[in-house]
Write a structure and sequence with these properties.
Elements: E1 2-7, H1 11-27, E2 32-37, H2 41-44, H3 50-53, H4 61-69, E3 74-78, E4 90-92, E5 103-107, E6 121-123, H5 127-136, E7 141-143, H6 149-158, E8 163-167, H7 168-173, E9 182-184, E10 198-203, H8 207-214, H9 219-235, E11 243-249, E12 255-262, E13 269-276, H10 279-294, E14 297-302, H11 313-321, E15 324-327, H12 333-336, E16 344-347, E17 350-351, E18 354-355, H13 359-372, E19 375-380, H14 390-400, E20 404-407, H15 412-419, E21 433-437, H16 450-455, E22 459-463, H17 469-478, E23 486-491, E24 499-504, H18 508-515, E25 521-525, H19 532-535, E26 547-553, H20 559-566, E27 570-581, H21 588-592, E28 596-599, H22 602-614, E29 626-629, H23 632-640, H24 654-662, E30 670-676, H25 682-687, E31 692-703, E32 719-722, H26 725-735, E33 744-746, H27 749-757, E34 763-765, H28 771-780
Parallel strand pairs: 1-2, 1-3, 6-7, 6-8, 14-19, 14-20, 15-16, 15-19, 21-22, 26-27, 26-32, 28-29, 28-30, 30-31, 32-33, 33-34
Antiparallel strand pairs: 3-10, 4-10, 5-8, 5-9, 11-12, 12-13, 17-18, 22-25, 23-24, 23-25, 27-31
Helix pairs in contact: 9-10, 13-14, 17-18, 20-28, 26-27
Length: about 775
């Protein structure tokens, strides 16, 4: 039988593969074994440390692909370079006898680590080695070095490094033990998990080849590999996080597993040592001890039923402080926008029975992220424990030694009903309620005690049961509940997309089908449904059921969207610009020359104030200077800085501002207009004839390419709300003519003029150039 062995092309990789080929040829002379050199991503990128180019798979992916294709039968790797789990469709043979697992120090001139001068330079591409050597000698300067053994030795000489750290196993396999200055004992530097062990990777199901390889395995080495790599799996380590593990069997006694783990910056290192005979248990115990010392806190947070305003104060605080947020499909986008800059957002949701990530994987992810971050939030729709599997996550974290807190949330079982005008209890109609999930783990109707529900007077609430609404109604009637009992189904409860169907129990199934309701949905049965007509506050809001599009500048959600949500509307935002502050400095002498400062936006106010601060100036420099603000919101922001506008026009747009200023200005007045660099010059054209007018650029409103894929089709919007001409230009230029058919709402005359110039036929201008004015015009035209 002929077998092809895949290997990387470095001297060390070839030496390892040749060693394997030699052993196999000697053990099985009737078979033929040959080598095939395969170049990997890790071989091509040599100018960056491993944690910057990807995970450990960068050294093996191409070889694994050839094994899966059948071109190669055996892949030979250093096991320390392998991910903690084999790729799908592949498996590892049992480990052969291990080479020396220790790290070694090679010094260019000195003979001992202690002889190196303060600030000596040591080269390594491993964070694990870097942090541990600095633990021994904090004064050392560690620099990145990549490449094969020869390359690293050459770089040490050429770049005059004082030394480098390598694995003893590689040097010994190359016959280069003579270059070793000093072995670093495990008490000084714990090696990488499975360092010195070869990984023999084959295709899953290739049992005949597996038997050949396993016959040459070493029991002690296999046990060590299981314990060390088991620790790596348990702790969730990867190449971005420094981790080490070494398992040694004491003569005639148990095994001892020594481990280390550090954070990404190296500011914290934790060590643990455990003893026992079962590799899997050793790994779990070691990981538990490390987590107990190193992990941050996981917050299991109930995000509420959909309306972002229904999250608790404590839940919102946790979101804003989180370093990582792991969220579900039902988590609102508005809540995610509360995350601080740099927070990692990970989606693990489920829709239509399709899991992005299974629950077991989510549990492991939570434990893993707790080792990276001080505060990890698991954001769940509704409440953490009400059919949210939060209990499973909490128990898993407790088992792994990860501290956690639970922040309960408002459940749709109560809030969803309330937003549909249905109280879950009411005197004389329902003194209690049942809440059940309508399906089980096999995606069948759950084992519900319909007799108990039908025989009582309590409200019956079913979650996650939309597809079984008719079956639920039938079972309740079979159990004796009158067919004229009132029922309701609430889809997308507490969101602008909420839809509610009501009928008696006999007809509710037909009503749901006719309405085309979508999940998530809440089913409620009982006399309290009859109160809906008098308590239906949410669906009675003036803009309920409407959806608008808002082109915006900047990443944060707009005040306009918040106002629309308060009126029951849905609003999608699309970023078309961003604000970049100018690097402008002022002197006190310059500011004394200004008789008037004109502000036409909140961005201008904030940018000017930042320029003042960078110039180490404050409000005292504006003594004697008069202030003009285009509108009330701009004036309010000025007031927060201690400035009160001397002029606010009756109408909040530039035409009215110019007309009002003309009545007050004289040719001697020096007027500063604090503006965006790309803003038009309408005010200058209107005012330079009656004063000394100067445009001062304090920020730029830069264009951003709109992400049109996030948008719905134009006909799904009841209108587009344009708050400035530049936003209109950017969206319409990017989106095309079909969007010009939508109704457009303009905040003021300049924006309206531009929309008409572009050919937008249906343009409606707000009577007052404010966000509130835009909402008012929407109400009149809804």
């Amino acid at each position: 039988m002929k077998y092809t062995i895949g290997t990387r092309g470095s001297k060390l990789a070839l030496a390892q593969a040749e060693f394997v080929r030699g052993r196999l040829s000697q053990a099985y002379p009737e078979d033929k074994f040959e080598l095939q050199i395969i170049k990997t991503k890790g071989d091509r990128i040599l100018d960056k440390p491993l944690h910057e180019i990807g995970d450990k798979g960068v050294f093996v992916k191409e070889i694994e692909e050839k094994i899966l294709s059948g071109e190669v039968q055996i892949g030979v790797h250093s096991m320390k370079d392998m991910p903690s789990r084999p790729a799908s469709g592949l498996m590892f043979a049992k480990a052969w006898k291990r080479e020396d697992p220790r790290d070694v120090l090679i010094l260019r001139e000195k003979e001992r680590l202690e002889d190196l001068p303060e600030g000596a330079v040591i080269g390594t591409g491993s964070r694990r080695r870097e942090y541990q050597i600095k633990h021994l000698r904090p004064d050392l300067r560690v620099v990145n070095i990549r490449g094969n053994v020869d390359t690293r030795l050459r770089k040490m000489e050429e770049e005059k490094m004082d030394g480098i750290i390598l694995a003893a196993a590689g040097l010994r396999r190359l016959g280069m033990e003579g270059r070793i200055t000093r072995y670093l004992e495990p008490e000084e530097m714990i090696p990488a998990p499975a360092q010195g062990i070869l990984a023999l990777e084959i295709r899953e199901g290739d049992t005949e080849l597996l038997e050949l390889l396993d016959a040459l395995s070493d029991e002690d080495t296999e046990q060590a590999a299981e314990a060390e790599r088991g620790f790596l799996r348990e702790i969730g380590g990867d190449c971005h996080i420094p981790s080490g593990a070494l398992c040694r069997k004491e003569p005639g006694g148990p095994c001892q597993l020594d481990v280390m783990f550090g954070n990404a910056s190296g500011t914290r290192l934790a060590y643990a040592s455990v003893r026992g005979n079962a590799p899997e248990q050793l790994a779990k115990e070691a990981a538990f001890r490390i987590r107990s010392e190193m992990s941050g806190t996981v917050f299991l947070v109930g995000g509420g039923p959909g309306d972002p305003g229904l999250i608790t104060v404590k839940g919102m605080q946790a979101l804003r402080e989180a370093d990582c947020i792991i969220y579900d499909r039902l988590s609102s986008q508005e809540l995610l926008e509360e995350a601080k800059p740099g927070c990692e957002l990970i989606y693990v949701g489920k829709a239509d029975h399709r899991h992005t990530m299974k629950q077991e994987e989510i549990n492991r992810l939570l434990a893993s992220k707790s080792m990276q971050y001080e505060k990890t939030v698991r954001l769940k729709g509704g409440d953490v424990y009400v059919f949210g599997r939060g209990g499973e996550e909490g128990l898993y974290l407790a088992e792994k030694g990860v501290p956690f807190q639970v922040i309960p949330g408002v459940s749709s079982a109560i809030a969803g009903l309330a937003y549909a005008g249905i109280p879950v209890t009411h005197r004389g109609k329902a003194l209690g309620f049942h809440v059940v999930t309508a399906h089980n783990s096999r995606d069948e109707l759950a084992e519900i005690d319909f007799e108990a529900m039908a025989g009582g007077k309590e409200t019956c609430v079913f979650l996650m049961g939309l597809s079984r609404a008719e079956e639920i109604a039938s079972r309740l009637m079979e159990a004796g509940m009158p067919e004229n009992t009132q029922a309701a189904v609430i889809s997308c409860a507490t969101t602008p997309g909420q839809k509610t169907c009501t009928a008696d129990l006999a007809c509710i199934g037909d009503k749901v089908r006719e309405a085309g309701l979508v999940s998530p949905a809440v089913i409620v049965v009982g006399d309290v449904v009859s109160l809906r007509s008098g308590l239906n506050f949410y669906e009675s809001q003036p803009l309920f059921g409407k959806r608008y599009l808002i082109p915006k500048t900047g990443e944060t959600s707009t005040e306009l969207k918040a106002l629309l949500l308060q009126q029951g509307a849905a609003a999608d935002e699309i970023q078309v610009g961003r604000i970049v502050r100018a690097e402008r400095r002022f002197s006190a002498e310059e500011l004394k020359q200004a008789d008037w400062l004109i502000f036409t936006s909140k961005n201008g106010v904030e940018a000017f104030w930042e320029c003042l601060a960078k110039s180490r100036l404050d409000i005292r420099c504006l003594a004697g200077c008069r202030i003009a603000a285009i509108g009330g919101k701009t004036a309010e922001l000025l007031e927060t800085h201690g400035l009160y506008a001397d002029l606010i026009p009756d109408a909040f747009h530039s035409h009215a501002l110019a007309d009002a200023l003309k009545k007050l200005l004289s040719p001697q007045d020096h007027v500063w207009y604090l503006k965006a660099g790309n803003a038009d010059s309408h005010l200058k054209a209107a005012l330079e004839c009656c004063c000394r007018f100067e445009e001062i650029t304090v920020y730029e409103n830069q264009a951003v390419e709109p992400d049109l894929e996030k948008l719905r089709s134009p006909e799904e919007y009841d209108g587009i709300l344009f708050t400035c001409a530049s936003s209109a230009k950017r969206l319409l230029d990017a989106a095309g003519n079909k969007w010009k058919l939508c109704r457009a709402f303009s905040i003021g005359p300049k924006t309206a003029e531009y929309l008409k110039f572009c050919g937008v036929e249906c343009t409606i201008e707000a009577e007052t150039s404010t966000y509130e004015g835009m909402v008012d015009i929407l109400k009149k035209n809804s």
